[in-house]
Amino acid sequence: MTVEVSRRRLLGAVGAAGATGVVLGAAGGAAGYAAAGDGPAGGTALSAVGSASAPFRGAHQAGIVQPLQARGHLIAFDLTPGTGRKEAIALLRRWSAVAEALMAGKPAGDGDTGVALDAGPCALTVTFGFGASFFDRTGLVDRRPVQLEPLPAFSADRLDPRRSHGDLWVQIGADDALVAFHALRAIQREAGAGARPRWQMNGFNRSPGATAHPMTARNLMGQIDGTGNPKPAEPDFDRRIFVAPGGAQPWMTGGSYAVVRRIRMLLDDWEKLPLAKQEQVIGRRKSDGAPLTGGGETTELDLDRTGPDGRLVVPGNAHARITAPEQNGGAAMLRRPFSYHDGIDPDGTPDAGLLFIAWQADPLKGFVPVQRKLDRGDALSPFLRHEASGLFAVPGGPGDGEYVGQRLLEA
């Protein structure tokens, strides 16, 4: 049965001006959800936000190129003592089955909690990755990619080992908080006795339809964040973000590497800066994200332009200058973060910032060289503190009949 999303229902859900940005993915998700017979009110059409869905199977795992979601959970697991390759296979089978069902808007098996019973898929994605230690624990050291070598230390690091690394990593994102939480609980439950949570982080972004038209998200500093992201339409996008065939580890073909950092923003200090100084630190206007050299948000930075005083318009230590691909030999990452706020410290400072997630085909050519340059003199660094870190190999998407990671575990 095909479910049609009515224009009146859609506009009521997301606002007339914002509808264009979300309707493109609506029909497929709504139809898939209704076909399962689980739609609210016996098949009533869902709004565009509820019906949007992402595919579980394909060349790449979901949660990498999809638009930012409103809610997110990041969770790392360690395999329990005595758990090896056989038990890891069973775990990945269970996780894959649950993720595929939930991403289609279906219940998570017989033990479903009913938390998301009234909702559709809500653009849910569940993404799985392997940390360096996973290969030791499963006897697969010879299949560990060299790209999983530990990240170097940086001067802004204040890393908490209890909230860093892990054997397994799961990224969950959705446009509804209950749908995201439902997936988190299902993943935790299916871990069973074979894996225990090591750390968990919760994040958020702006909700779909909250702006008059689709736009790049803002972070908790109020800056438009993500303008320089590589775009899937660019001819070299796949080469930069995904592992190409023919590599040393064939099981990573179509996969990517995720650098995960919990970056606290020192908001009290940042908010004391005048607007003009904030813009000098970033190298862009706060109002619309345009370069200080003029134009709109997507206008290229003119890094050579000087002002009447002879100084560079975009300062030499501006964040936008240091991170520009042309300043880093073309190094690029697809940043797909969540903001977080975990309360107020005893001294009254907010524990808030960015759950930084960067995707790339090779972190040794993406994140590492860029972060090294930032470490040597980024004007934004005094307002940031890196408190947790992880690096994970995220294999390609499963094919028909496969579970995530099967080509690694059963090759």
UniProtKB/TrEMBL annotation:
Its EC number is 1.11.1.-. Residues 216-397 form the Dyp-type peroxidase C-terminal domain. Binds 1 heme b (iron(II)-protoporphyrin IX) group non-covalently per subunit. It catalyses: heme b + 2 H(+) = protoporphyrin IX + Fe(2+). Pfam families: Dyp_perox_C, Dyp_perox_N. Residues 61-205 form the Dyp-type peroxidase N-terminal domain. It is an enzyme of class 1 (oxidoreductase). The keyword Glycoprotein does not apply. Its cofactor is heme b. It is found in: Cell envelope. Keywords: Heme, Iron, Lyase, Metal-binding, Oxidoreductase, Peroxidase, Signal. Residues 284-307 are annotated as: Disordered. Its main location: other. One of its GO terms (molecular function) is lyase activity. NCBIfam families: Dyp_perox_fam (TIGR01413), tat_substr_1 (TIGR01412). Involved in the recovery of exogenous heme iron. Extracts iron from heme while preserving the protoporphyrin ring intact. This is Deferrochelatase.
